[in-house]
Specification:
Elements: E1 17-21, H1 25-37, E2 40-44, E3 60-61, H2 72-88, E4 93-94, E5 98-102, H3 105-121, E6 126-128, H4 130-136, E7 146-150, E8 153-155, H5 157-170, E9 174-176, E10 179-187, E11 190-198, E12 204-208, E13 211-214, H6 220-226, E14 233-243, E15 251-254, E16 263-267, E17 270-274, E18 278-279, H7 292-300, E19 314-323, E20 338-342, E21 351-356, H8 362-377
Parallel strand pairs: 1-2, 1-13, 2-9, 5-15, 13-21
Antiparallel strand pairs: 3-8, 4-8, 5-7, 6-7, 10-11, 11-12, 14-17, 14-18, 14-19, 15-16, 16-17, 20-21
Helix pairs in contact: 1-5, 1-8
Amino acid sequence: MPISNLPSPISSLSSLRVVVIGAGSTGAAVAHDLALRGFRVTVIERSEVAGGTTGRNHCLLHSGARYVVNDPIAARECIEENLILRRIMAGGLELNDGLMIAVDDRDEAFKPRFLAGCEQAGIDAHELSVSEARRLEPNLSPAIRAAVRVPDGVFEPFRFCLCFLATAQANGATVHTYCQVTDIQRGHNGAQGVTVRHLRTGKVQQIDADFVINATGPWSGRVAQIAGCDVPVVPTAGVMVSIPQRINRMVIHRMYLPGDGDILVPQRQTSLLGTSSWVVKDADAIDIPADHAQRMIDLTAEMMPIVKSIPYRAAWAAARPLIGSARLGDGRELSRTFECFDHAKEGVPGFITITGGKTVTARVMAEKVVDLVCAKAGVQAECRTREVPLHNYREFYLS
Protein backbone atom coordinates (compact mmCIF):
# COMPACT_ATOMS: atom_id res chain seq x y z
CA MET A 1 0.00 0.00 0.00
CA PRO A 2 1.28 3.56 -0.57
CA ILE A 3 3.13 5.06 2.36
CA SER A 4 0.74 8.03 2.43
CA ASN A 5 -2.16 5.68 3.18
CA LEU A 6 -0.57 3.94 6.14
CA PRO A 7 -2.49 3.99 9.42
CA SER A 8 -1.41 6.57 11.98
CA PRO A 9 1.12 5.48 14.64
CA ILE A 10 -0.41 3.78 17.66
CA SER A 11 -1.22 6.57 20.11
CA SER A 12 -0.42 4.50 23.23
CA LEU A 13 3.20 4.28 22.13
CA SER A 14 3.70 7.89 21.12
CA SER A 15 5.01 8.87 24.55
CA LEU A 16 7.65 6.10 24.68
CA ARG A 17 11.08 7.36 23.65
CA VAL A 18 13.78 5.13 22.19
CA VAL A 19 17.36 6.03 21.33
CA VAL A 20 18.99 3.82 18.70
CA ILE A 21 22.79 3.92 18.67
CA GLY A 22 24.14 3.23 15.18
CA ALA A 23 22.90 4.08 11.67
CA GLY A 24 24.23 1.11 9.79
CA SER A 25 21.84 -1.44 8.33
CA THR A 26 20.76 -2.79 11.73
CA GLY A 27 20.21 0.56 13.40
CA ALA A 28 18.39 1.93 10.34
CA ALA A 29 16.05 -1.06 10.25
CA VAL A 30 15.44 -0.83 14.01
CA ALA A 31 14.57 2.86 13.70
CA HIS A 32 12.11 2.07 10.90
CA ASP A 33 10.37 -0.69 12.86
CA LEU A 34 10.13 1.41 16.03
CA ALA A 35 8.76 4.46 14.22
CA LEU A 36 6.28 2.36 12.26
CA ARG A 37 4.91 0.93 15.51
CA GLY A 38 4.54 4.42 16.96
CA PHE A 39 7.58 4.98 19.21
CA ARG A 40 9.36 8.32 19.40
CA VAL A 41 12.75 7.50 17.88
CA THR A 42 16.14 9.23 17.91
CA VAL A 43 19.04 7.70 15.98
CA ILE A 44 22.62 8.54 16.98
CA GLU A 45 25.49 7.85 14.57
CA ARG A 46 29.08 8.95 15.20
CA SER A 47 29.91 9.22 11.46
CA GLU A 48 27.80 9.23 8.31
CA VAL A 49 24.93 6.82 7.66
CA ALA A 50 26.47 3.42 6.86
CA GLY A 51 29.84 4.82 7.93
CA GLY A 52 30.94 1.62 9.68
CA THR A 53 30.80 -2.03 8.67
CA THR A 54 27.73 -1.68 6.46
CA GLY A 55 29.41 0.85 4.19
CA ARG A 56 32.46 -1.37 3.78
CA ASN A 57 30.85 -4.72 3.10
CA HIS A 58 30.69 -6.62 -0.19
CA CYS A 59 27.17 -5.43 -1.07
CA LEU A 60 25.75 -8.95 -1.42
CA LEU A 61 22.02 -9.56 -1.02
CA HIS A 62 22.59 -13.08 0.27
CA SER A 63 20.39 -15.92 -0.90
CA GLY A 64 21.85 -17.94 1.98
CA ALA A 65 23.39 -20.46 -0.43
CA ARG A 66 26.86 -19.64 0.84
CA TYR A 67 25.98 -21.00 4.30
CA VAL A 68 23.68 -23.97 3.64
CA VAL A 69 26.19 -26.63 4.71
CA ASN A 70 28.11 -25.02 7.58
CA ASP A 71 25.52 -22.55 8.96
CA PRO A 72 21.97 -23.62 7.99
CA ILE A 73 20.29 -21.28 10.49
CA ALA A 74 21.96 -18.26 8.89
CA ALA A 75 21.12 -19.65 5.44
CA ARG A 76 17.41 -19.82 6.24
CA GLU A 77 17.46 -16.31 7.72
CA CYS A 78 19.12 -14.98 4.58
CA ILE A 79 16.72 -16.47 2.05
CA GLU A 80 13.64 -15.45 4.06
CA GLU A 81 14.85 -11.85 4.31
CA ASN A 82 16.08 -11.80 0.72
CA LEU A 83 12.52 -12.50 -0.46
CA ILE A 84 11.03 -9.86 1.86
CA LEU A 85 13.50 -7.18 0.75
CA ARG A 86 12.61 -7.88 -2.87
CA ARG A 87 9.05 -6.84 -2.00
CA ILE A 88 9.65 -3.81 0.22
CA MET A 89 12.77 -2.25 -1.34
CA ALA A 90 11.67 -2.05 -4.96
CA GLY A 91 14.16 -0.10 -7.02
CA GLY A 92 16.86 -0.34 -4.36
CA LEU A 93 18.25 -3.72 -5.36
CA GLU A 94 19.89 -5.31 -8.37
CA LEU A 95 18.32 -8.76 -8.63
CA ASN A 96 20.98 -10.32 -10.80
CA ASP A 97 21.19 -13.80 -9.17
CA GLY A 98 24.37 -15.69 -8.38
CA LEU A 99 26.36 -18.63 -9.66
CA MET A 100 27.98 -21.19 -7.37
CA ILE A 101 30.72 -22.77 -9.45
CA ALA A 102 32.92 -25.84 -9.05
CA VAL A 103 36.47 -25.33 -10.29
CA ASP A 104 38.16 -28.55 -9.18
CA ASP A 105 37.48 -32.08 -7.90
CA ARG A 106 36.97 -30.88 -4.33
CA ASP A 107 34.30 -28.39 -5.38
CA GLU A 108 32.54 -30.92 -7.60
CA ALA A 109 32.46 -33.49 -4.81
CA PHE A 110 30.83 -30.84 -2.57
CA LYS A 111 27.93 -30.29 -4.97
CA PRO A 112 25.55 -33.01 -3.61
CA ARG A 113 25.86 -31.62 -0.06
CA PHE A 114 25.36 -28.12 -1.39
CA LEU A 115 22.21 -28.97 -3.35
CA ALA A 116 20.77 -30.90 -0.40
CA GLY A 117 21.45 -27.91 1.87
CA CYS A 118 19.70 -25.53 -0.54
CA GLU A 119 16.64 -27.77 -0.61
CA GLN A 120 16.50 -27.97 3.19
CA ALA A 121 16.88 -24.18 3.52
CA GLY A 122 14.20 -23.45 0.92
CA ILE A 123 16.62 -21.83 -1.54
CA ASP A 124 15.61 -22.01 -5.19
CA ALA A 125 18.76 -23.53 -6.73
CA HIS A 126 19.01 -24.64 -10.37
CA GLU A 127 21.89 -26.62 -11.78
CA LEU A 128 23.17 -25.30 -15.10
CA SER A 129 25.34 -26.91 -17.71
CA VAL A 130 28.86 -25.54 -18.02
CA SER A 131 27.99 -24.11 -21.43
CA GLU A 132 24.94 -22.31 -19.98
CA ALA A 133 27.06 -20.86 -17.18
CA ARG A 134 29.71 -19.64 -19.60
CA ARG A 135 27.03 -18.08 -21.81
CA LEU A 136 25.80 -16.10 -18.79
CA GLU A 137 29.32 -15.27 -17.60
CA PRO A 138 31.84 -15.36 -20.47
CA ASN A 139 34.77 -14.55 -18.15
CA LEU A 140 34.42 -17.76 -16.14
CA SER A 141 37.45 -20.01 -16.04
CA PRO A 142 37.60 -22.74 -18.70
CA ALA A 143 38.29 -25.13 -15.81
CA ILE A 144 34.81 -24.97 -14.25
CA ARG A 145 33.17 -28.37 -13.68
CA ALA A 146 29.66 -27.41 -12.54
CA ALA A 147 27.43 -24.40 -11.84
CA VAL A 148 24.28 -23.77 -9.81
CA ARG A 149 22.15 -20.64 -10.11
CA VAL A 150 20.84 -19.14 -6.84
CA PRO A 151 18.73 -16.03 -6.03
CA ASP A 152 21.48 -13.66 -4.89
CA GLY A 153 21.35 -9.93 -5.52
CA VAL A 154 23.32 -6.73 -4.97
CA PHE A 155 22.61 -3.55 -3.00
CA GLU A 156 24.35 -0.22 -2.51
CA PRO A 157 24.94 0.02 1.28
CA PHE A 158 24.39 3.76 1.73
CA ARG A 159 21.13 3.70 -0.20
CA PHE A 160 20.05 0.51 1.59
CA CYS A 161 20.25 2.26 4.96
CA LEU A 162 18.68 5.47 3.68
CA CYS A 163 15.57 3.59 2.49
CA PHE A 164 14.94 2.48 6.08
CA LEU A 165 15.84 5.85 7.58
CA ALA A 166 13.78 7.88 5.09
CA THR A 167 10.74 5.78 6.03
CA ALA A 168 11.54 6.16 9.74
CA GLN A 169 11.78 9.95 9.31
CA ALA A 170 8.41 9.98 7.56
CA ASN A 171 7.02 8.36 10.71
CA GLY A 172 8.59 10.90 13.05
CA ALA A 173 12.12 9.63 13.71
CA THR A 174 15.06 12.02 14.15
CA VAL A 175 18.53 11.12 12.87
CA HIS A 176 21.72 12.74 14.21
CA THR A 177 24.92 11.96 12.30
CA TYR A 178 28.43 12.89 13.46
CA CYS A 179 27.17 12.56 17.01
CA GLN A 180 28.92 10.25 19.49
CA VAL A 181 27.49 8.62 22.60
CA THR A 182 29.77 9.36 25.56
CA ASP A 183 27.60 8.01 28.35
CA ILE A 184 24.48 5.95 28.91
CA GLN A 185 22.40 7.56 31.63
CA ARG A 186 21.12 5.21 34.33
CA GLY A 187 18.70 5.65 37.20
CA HIS A 188 16.74 3.47 39.59
CA ASN A 189 14.69 2.12 36.69
CA GLY A 190 17.66 1.41 34.42
CA ALA A 191 18.64 3.23 31.22
CA GLN A 192 17.22 6.74 31.07
CA GLY A 193 18.90 8.08 27.95
CA VAL A 194 22.30 8.98 26.56
CA THR A 195 24.81 11.79 26.70
CA VAL A 196 26.17 12.70 23.27
CA ARG A 197 28.77 15.01 21.83
CA HIS A 198 28.09 16.58 18.44
CA LEU A 199 31.41 16.11 16.67
CA ARG A 200 31.04 19.08 14.33
CA THR A 201 30.22 21.65 17.02
CA GLY A 202 31.51 20.08 20.23
CA LYS A 203 28.10 20.59 21.83
CA VAL A 204 27.25 18.10 24.61
CA GLN A 205 23.61 17.08 24.92
CA GLN A 206 21.56 14.68 27.00
CA ILE A 207 18.79 12.82 25.21
CA ASP A 208 16.23 11.24 27.51
CA ALA A 209 14.78 7.86 26.63
CA ASP A 210 12.75 4.99 28.02
CA PHE A 211 14.86 2.49 26.07
CA VAL A 212 18.33 2.57 24.56
CA ILE A 213 19.15 0.12 21.76
CA ASN A 214 22.78 -0.62 20.95
CA ALA A 215 23.00 -1.45 17.23
CA THR A 216 26.65 -0.70 16.64
CA GLY A 217 27.81 -3.99 15.13
CA PRO A 218 31.46 -4.78 15.94
CA TRP A 219 31.50 -1.80 18.31
CA SER A 220 28.57 -3.15 20.34
CA GLY A 221 30.86 -4.62 22.99
CA ARG A 222 32.57 -1.26 23.48
CA VAL A 223 29.27 0.62 23.69
CA ALA A 224 27.86 -1.95 26.14
CA GLN A 225 30.87 -1.38 28.39
CA ILE A 226 29.82 2.27 28.77
CA ALA A 227 26.81 0.97 30.69
CA GLY A 228 28.87 -1.62 32.54
CA CYS A 229 27.50 -4.47 30.43
CA ASP A 230 29.08 -7.23 28.38
CA VAL A 231 28.41 -8.36 24.80
CA PRO A 232 30.45 -11.33 23.49
CA VAL A 233 31.04 -9.85 20.05
CA VAL A 234 34.19 -10.73 18.12
CA PRO A 235 35.25 -8.11 15.54
CA THR A 236 36.41 -10.25 12.64
CA ALA A 237 37.97 -8.41 9.73
CA GLY A 238 38.01 -9.30 6.06
CA VAL A 239 39.91 -7.75 3.17
CA MET A 240 38.11 -6.85 -0.04
CA VAL A 241 39.60 -5.66 -3.32
CA SER A 242 37.92 -3.50 -5.96
CA ILE A 243 38.80 -3.64 -9.64
CA PRO A 244 37.63 -0.74 -11.88
CA GLN A 245 35.70 -2.87 -14.32
CA ARG A 246 32.53 -4.93 -14.07
CA ILE A 247 33.77 -8.35 -15.16
CA ASN A 248 30.74 -10.33 -13.95
CA ARG A 249 27.02 -9.64 -14.26
CA MET A 250 26.00 -12.13 -11.56
CA VAL A 251 27.51 -12.80 -8.13
CA ILE A 252 30.11 -15.57 -8.46
CA HIS A 253 30.86 -17.94 -5.55
CA ARG A 254 33.14 -20.91 -5.15
CA MET A 255 31.00 -23.99 -4.51
CA TYR A 256 32.52 -25.00 -1.19
CA LEU A 257 32.52 -24.02 2.47
CA PRO A 258 33.08 -20.25 2.91
CA GLY A 259 36.76 -19.41 2.69
CA ASP A 260 39.26 -16.84 1.48
CA GLY A 261 38.89 -15.32 -1.97
CA ASP A 262 35.77 -17.24 -2.94
CA ILE A 263 33.40 -14.48 -4.08
CA LEU A 264 33.15 -11.81 -6.79
CA VAL A 265 30.34 -9.26 -6.46
CA PRO A 266 29.47 -6.78 -9.24
CA GLN A 267 28.78 -3.29 -7.89
CA ARG A 268 27.95 -0.53 -10.35
CA GLN A 269 30.90 -0.44 -12.78
CA THR A 270 33.29 -2.35 -10.53
CA SER A 271 33.74 -5.88 -9.24
CA LEU A 272 34.52 -6.60 -5.58
CA LEU A 273 36.77 -9.54 -4.71
CA GLY A 274 36.81 -11.10 -1.29
CA THR A 275 37.25 -11.92 1.37
CA SER A 276 39.66 -13.04 4.08
CA SER A 277 38.95 -13.45 7.80
CA TRP A 278 40.87 -12.79 10.99
CA VAL A 279 40.01 -11.62 14.51
CA VAL A 280 40.96 -8.04 15.41
CA LYS A 281 41.00 -6.29 18.78
CA ASP A 282 39.81 -2.89 17.59
CA ALA A 283 37.32 -2.39 14.74
CA ASP A 284 38.64 1.17 14.36
CA ALA A 285 42.26 0.14 13.86
CA ILE A 286 42.51 -2.66 11.31
CA ASP A 287 45.95 -3.22 9.86
CA ILE A 288 45.57 -4.99 6.53
CA PRO A 289 48.12 -7.81 6.20
CA ALA A 290 50.44 -7.10 3.29
CA ASP A 291 49.65 -10.28 1.38
CA HIS A 292 45.85 -10.29 1.71
CA ALA A 293 44.98 -8.16 -1.33
CA GLN A 294 47.15 -10.26 -3.62
CA ARG A 295 45.70 -13.41 -2.09
CA MET A 296 42.18 -12.23 -2.96
CA ILE A 297 43.28 -11.64 -6.54
CA ASP A 298 45.04 -15.00 -6.86
CA LEU A 299 42.13 -16.98 -5.43
CA THR A 300 39.30 -15.25 -7.29
CA ALA A 301 41.35 -15.61 -10.50
CA GLU A 302 40.78 -19.35 -10.19
CA MET A 303 37.12 -18.58 -10.94
CA MET A 304 37.70 -15.66 -13.32
CA PRO A 305 41.27 -15.43 -14.68
CA ILE A 306 40.63 -11.94 -16.12
CA VAL A 307 41.02 -10.63 -12.55
CA LYS A 308 44.81 -10.81 -12.88
CA SER A 309 44.89 -8.67 -16.02
CA ILE A 310 43.21 -5.62 -14.43
CA PRO A 311 45.12 -3.48 -11.90
CA TYR A 312 43.04 -3.17 -8.76
CA ARG A 313 41.73 0.20 -7.61
CA ALA A 314 41.58 -0.25 -3.84
CA ALA A 315 41.79 -2.72 -0.97
CA TRP A 316 40.09 -2.25 2.39
CA ALA A 317 38.90 -4.16 5.41
CA ALA A 318 35.71 -4.15 7.47
CA ALA A 319 35.01 -5.81 10.81
CA ARG A 320 32.12 -8.24 11.04
CA PRO A 321 30.24 -8.41 14.38
CA LEU A 322 30.38 -12.15 15.00
CA ILE A 323 29.09 -13.57 18.27
CA GLY A 324 31.27 -15.99 20.22
CA SER A 325 34.70 -16.38 21.72
CA ALA A 326 37.76 -14.49 20.51
CA ARG A 327 39.75 -17.65 21.15
CA LEU A 328 38.32 -19.18 17.97
CA GLY A 329 40.91 -19.00 15.16
CA ASP A 330 40.09 -16.72 12.25
CA GLY A 331 36.35 -16.39 12.99
CA ARG A 332 35.15 -18.69 10.20
CA GLU A 333 33.80 -21.05 12.88
CA LEU A 334 31.40 -18.42 14.23
CA SER A 335 27.82 -18.33 13.01
CA ARG A 336 26.55 -15.46 10.87
CA THR A 337 23.26 -15.43 12.78
CA PHE A 338 22.33 -12.71 15.28
CA GLU A 339 21.42 -12.36 18.93
CA CYS A 340 19.54 -9.91 21.12
CA PHE A 341 20.98 -9.14 24.59
CA ASP A 342 18.66 -7.83 27.29
CA HIS A 343 20.93 -6.04 29.75
CA ALA A 344 18.27 -6.08 32.46
CA LYS A 345 20.00 -9.33 33.41
CA GLU A 346 23.09 -7.22 34.18
CA GLY A 347 21.18 -4.65 36.18
CA VAL A 348 20.48 -2.16 33.37
CA PRO A 349 16.85 -2.59 32.30
CA GLY A 350 15.86 -0.61 29.25
CA PHE A 351 19.26 -1.17 27.61
CA ILE A 352 19.29 -3.75 24.82
CA THR A 353 21.93 -4.81 22.29
CA ILE A 354 21.20 -6.34 18.90
CA THR A 355 24.26 -7.62 17.05
CA GLY A 356 25.62 -10.26 14.70
CA GLY A 357 23.74 -11.06 11.52
CA LYS A 358 24.24 -9.57 8.08
CA THR A 359 22.93 -6.58 6.16
CA VAL A 360 20.35 -8.81 4.47
CA THR A 361 18.96 -9.84 7.89
CA ALA A 362 18.69 -6.29 9.28
CA ARG A 363 14.89 -6.21 9.03
CA VAL A 364 14.32 -9.41 11.01
CA MET A 365 16.93 -8.35 13.56
CA ALA A 366 14.94 -5.16 14.03
CA GLU A 367 11.70 -7.13 14.36
CA LYS A 368 13.13 -9.26 17.16
CA VAL A 369 14.56 -6.39 19.18
CA VAL A 370 11.45 -4.21 18.81
CA ASP A 371 9.26 -7.15 19.85
CA LEU A 372 11.38 -7.28 23.01
CA VAL A 373 10.98 -3.54 23.59
CA CYS A 374 7.20 -3.89 23.27
CA ALA A 375 7.18 -6.78 25.73
CA LYS A 376 9.30 -4.80 28.20
CA ALA A 377 7.04 -1.76 27.83
CA GLY A 378 3.92 -3.85 28.28
CA VAL A 379 2.38 -2.71 25.00
CA GLN A 380 1.09 -4.51 21.95
CA ALA A 381 2.06 -3.30 18.49
CA GLU A 382 2.26 -5.64 15.55
CA CYS A 383 5.34 -5.61 13.33
CA ARG A 384 4.42 -4.54 9.80
CA THR A 385 7.86 -4.29 8.21
CA ARG A 386 7.36 -7.44 6.16
CA GLU A 387 4.73 -5.73 4.03
CA VAL A 388 5.20 -1.95 4.24
CA PRO A 389 7.13 -0.63 1.23
CA LEU A 390 10.12 1.57 2.01
CA HIS A 391 10.58 5.13 0.86
CA ASN A 392 13.06 5.93 -1.88
CA TYR A 393 16.48 6.65 -0.40
CA ARG A 394 16.46 10.18 -1.85
CA GLU A 395 13.61 11.16 0.45
CA PHE A 396 15.93 11.02 3.46
CA TYR A 397 17.27 14.44 2.42
CA LEU A 398 13.83 15.93 1.74
CA SER A 399 12.48 15.57 5.28
